[in-house]
Write a structure and sequence with these properties.
This protein is α/β, with parallel strands linked by helices and 325 residues long. It folds into two domains: 120 residues, NAD(P)-binding Rossmann-like Domain (Rossmann fold, 3-Layer(aba) Sandwich); 145 residues, Dihydrodipicolinate Reductase, domain 2 (2-Layer Sandwich). It has nine helices and 14 strands. Helix 4 links the parallel strand 4 and strand 5. The protein binds NADP nicotinamide-adenine-dinucleotide phosphate. The site of NADP nicotinamide-adenine-dinucleotide phosphate (NAP) has 22 residues, from helix 1 and helix 4.
């Protein structure tokens, strides 16, 4: 029997959609079937570039196309809920860019809709599937550096100031925390679980979103996480996991790192190179494909509960720094 290819749609054709579409070509069981933009010219151009079969000049037409299996939602944060819900309500599985919604209540509703319809849903947190992340999980599990004492991670860059752009515009969910701070916060959840206590401080832009956010997590077992994000300065974008017997450095950019340095008490430093394929998105694509082929409605590596816990934690941080959308 010839395997039927899984038909993908992409909703919103911006920067990340381009990288994703490029990696989707590496997956032989996937077909980029349809691409939807608010502009038909943009959709046609995108389709040509990445060999998509169909184009749509509205997101709704894509969601309603009965031939599509799964839709990748790649719009600014504030539209994830509305766009993903429309796809789910048209019986499409969804891979939704991070953050999955603007708050826990949105994410809860999305999860309930997917569960009710028995559809696959996952947040596009590609970091989880990057080979270097997989290796860190293995090293921690094997107690290579003993018990984890604390995690340190930063993510900062300095884009050109554009008050209308999605990074600064409050209406598009701007600010450092939801865009890039999500990665240090996710890393701490991945390695340490959910914190008991949190402390957070921020600086704000004139447009009213956080330009800098500093977060401290305190865990029941006394481990800590020290995390930072900013759109005001270029920072190292590295992560360190310190344990009782050594430490692991995730080289820049830690959220899709290709190099780890493992330092263990009494041993020489070990450098581990772990290249990812394509632009790095292929690893999350492979996970989604494997779930769909095996009729799984969620990923065991990035369960929906993790996405819900993550956004609930981001809600708490926003509450601490006084950031309301
Ligand atoms: N996983 C990652 O590595 C990664 C990296 C970057 C971003 N992201 C996530 O992906 C999402 C999109 O980021 P991006 O950098 O690709 O953004 P972007 O370049 O601004 O593209 C977003 C696209 O969304 C659509 N859109 C719909 N309504 C819009 C509106 N009112 N204003 C602007 N765009 C609108 C547009 O597509 P059409 O014009 O085609 O309709 C636009 O091109 C964000 O949620 C972000 O967190 C993830």
């Amino acid at each position: 029997m010839v395997n039927k290819k899984i038909k993908w749609g992409i909703l919103g054709l911006g920067k990340i959609a381009n990288k994703f579409a490029s990696d989707l070509q590496l997956e032989s069981d996937a077909e980029l079937y349809g691409v939807a933009s608010r502009s038909s010219e943009k959709a046609i151009e995108f389709a040509k570039k990445y060999n998509a079969i169909k184009t749509y000049s509205s997101y709704k037409e894509l969601a309603e196309d009965a031939d599509i299996d799964i839709i990748y939602v790649a719009t600014p944060h504030t539209f994830h809920f509305e766009n993903a819900m429309m796809c789910l309500q048209n019986d499409k599985s969804v891979l939704c860019e991070k953050p999955m919604g603007m708050n826990a209540s949105e994410v809860e509703t999305m999860i309930a809709e997917a569960k009710k319809r028995n559809l696959f849903l996952m947040e596009g947190l590609w970091t989880r599937f990057i080979p270097a992340t997989e290796k860190v999980i293995e090293l921690i599990k094997n107690k290579t550096i003993g018990e984890v004492l604390f995690v340190k991670a930063d993510f900062g860059f300095k884009p050109n100031y554009d008050p209308q752009g999605r990074l600064y515009n409050k209406k598009l969910g701007g600010g450092s925390l939801l865009d890039i701070g999500i990665y240090p916060v996710y890393l701490s959840i991945l390695l340490l679980g959910l914190p008991g206590n949190i402390k957070a401080m921020a600086r704000f832009t004139e447009s009213g979103v956080d330009s800098y956010c500093s977060v401290l997590f305190d865990y029941e077992n006394n481990s800590k996480a020290i995390l930072e994000s900013t759109i005001e300065a270029d920072t190292p974008i590295e992560a360190y996991v310190y344990g009782t017997k050594g430490n692991i450095k995730l080289h820049k950019r830690f959220h899709h790192s290709e190099k780890l340095t493992v330092t263990r008490d009494g041993f020489p430093k070990e450098e581990i190179d772990l290249k990812y394929k394509g632009e790095g998105y292929i690893h999350e694509i492979e996970e989604v494909m494997s779930c769909l082929i095996n009729n799984k409605t969620e990923s065991a590596k990035l369960p929906l509960l993790t996405s819900l816990n993550l956004i609930a934690l981001l809600d708490k941080i926003r509450n601490e720094i006084g950031l309301k959308y």
